[in-house]
Design goal:
The chain is of the alpha/beta class and about 425 residues long. It has two domains: about 150 residues, Aspartate Aminotransferase, domain 1 (Alpha-Beta Complex); about 250 residues, Aspartate Aminotransferase, domain 2 (3-Layer(aba) Sandwich), CATH 3.40.640. Helices cover about 35% and strands about 15% of the residues. It has 13 helices and 16 strands. The protein has a seven-stranded mixed beta sheet, sandwiched between helices. A four-stranded mixed beta sheet has the order 1-2-3-15. A three-stranded antiparallel beta sheet has the order 13-14-16, with helices on one face. Strand 5, helix 6 and strand 6 form a beta-alpha-beta unit. Helix 7 runs parallel beside helix 8. The chain starts with a helix and ends with a helix.
């Protein structure tokens, strides 16, 4: 047995992968290296990563600036507790986030991961309402089709019926779900009227409104009009709700603006970012809020925000996040995302139920559940790594993809659609 075979055999026997069975796991492939927009898979060779490591590696792999940031920080310290202590990388990354995000979000909580940042946002909303003398407001308003992470409160605001967490019905807090926002050709006014009515009906028990702006990600890759974000803002203002935008997937340029909130000129009360924050190098996220939310929750029972991860503000993660944000600050990503958007228009040639392209996101929806293994093999044969789910074959590639890479991605999606 070769070393590769031994590693894969042990992996199959002992390691869980995301959303896989331990008794009947789906095949995994051994990655031996990565550079730029490509990963090297044992037995396959070098392929374009059409997923950017689940949408996070926007600058590609082994980027010199990000590599150097990690090396430099290692020479100083890799970690120190954030309780009672601080350090330059944390201060600098917080300052940069405040500068880049919509105006008014001046308080920063450095979290471990995207789902943790949403958990923190929900705690902020609950504590804010307690501080405002409304402790009975313990539920959240959201829309169907959403996905906000795999921890418990995050699961509760993800789609309860068609989402990945339907099996937890009865074990999760029961939230208030409005209709999914319409597509660009839908009746926004009718949807808005229904959403306003639902909010009014339940307002006295709702603490906050949690949504993915402009694009719902793992819940179905569903884009919707920017004007819906103004509806969310109006509803939150009318009923005293804390408006939370989960930009884990959409933040840092993915939909064509640096943050999806900018598409409608809307500022939430709380903003969650992650994934691309460190350029895909390390796990880290952040929850930003307004000074008003910060003051409000500080008047709640505890007087403090009740969360504090062990690796909060990890210096290595902060240092590489700062380097990633520096790259974004050059503005080069704007042309890259436009170029990717143009290249992905080729997907419209595929015979499918629906094809949608937004920013650097391309989605092909089939009329049946994708045979993921067959589709994956078909894409690999075209030199592309994809990870289809449900009836969707999609790509959210690194911004550094070349035109050649984009052609390969489109060919891979086409092959996957025809096979899967």
């Amino acid at each position: 047995m070769t070393m590769s075979e031994e590693l894969l055999a042990f992996d199959r026997e002992h390691l869980w992968h995301p959303y896989t069975s331990m008794t009947d796991p789906t095949p995994t492939r051994l990655v031996t290296g990565a550079s730029g927009s490509r990963i090297s898979i044992d037995g396959v060779g070098e392929v374009v990563d059409g997923m950017a490591s689940w949408w996070s590696a926007i600058h590609g792999y082994r980027h010199p600036a990000l590599d150097e940031a990690v090396r430099h920080q290692l020479d100083r310290m890799s970690h120190v507790m954030f309780g009672g202590l601080t350090h330059e990388p944390a201060v600098r990354v917080a300052r940069r986030l405040i500068d880049l995000t919509p105006a008014g979000l001046g308080r920063v909580f450095l979290a471990d991961s995207g789902s943790v940042s949403v958990e923190v946002a929900m705690k902020m909303a609950l504590q804010y309402q307690r501080g405002a003398g409304r402790p009975e407001r313990t539920r959240f308003l959201t829309v169907r089709g959403g996905y906000h992470g795999d921890t418990f409160d995050c699961m509760s605001v993800s789609d309860p019926d068609d989402g990945m967490h339907a099996m937890w019905s009865g074990a999760l807090p029961e939230q208030v779900f409005g209709a999914r926002p319409p597509r660009s050709d839908g009746d926004v006014d009718a949807w808005a009227a229904g959403f306003h009515a639902l909010a009014a009906e339940h307002a006295d028990r709702i603490a906050g409104l949690v949504v993915e702006p402009l694009l719902q990600g793992a819940g179905g890759m569903h884009p919707y009009p920017a004007e819906c974000l103004r509806v969310f803002r109006d509803v939150a203002d009318e009923h005293g709700l804390v408006l939370v935008f989960d930009e884990i997937a959409t933040g840092f340029g993915r939909t064509g603006t640096l943050f999806a909130a900018e598409a409608a000129g809307v500022t939430p009360d709380v903003l969650c970012v992650g994934k691309a924050l460190t350029g895909g190098y390390m796990t880290m996220a952040a929850t930003l809020c307004t000074a008003e939310v910060g003051r409000g929750l500080s008047t709640s029972d505890s007087g403090v925000l009740m969360h504090g991860p062990t690796f909060m503000g990890n210096p290595l993660a902060c240092a590489v996040a700062l380097a990633s944000l520096d790259l974004l600050a050059t503005g080069d990503w704007v042309d890259d995302v436009r170029r990717i958007n143009t290249g992905l228009q080729e997907l419209h040639e595929i015979d499918a139920v629906d094809v949608r392209v937004l920013g650097a996101v391309g989605v092909v929806q089939l009329d049946h559940e994708v045979d993921r293994e067959a589709a994956t093999e078909a894409a690999l044969a075209q030199g592309v790594w994809l990870r289809p789910f449900r009836d969707l074959i999609y790509t959210m590639p690194p911004y550094v993809c070349t035109d050649e890479d984009l052609s390969a991605i489109c060919a891979g999606i086409k092959a996957a659609a025809e096979t899967g």
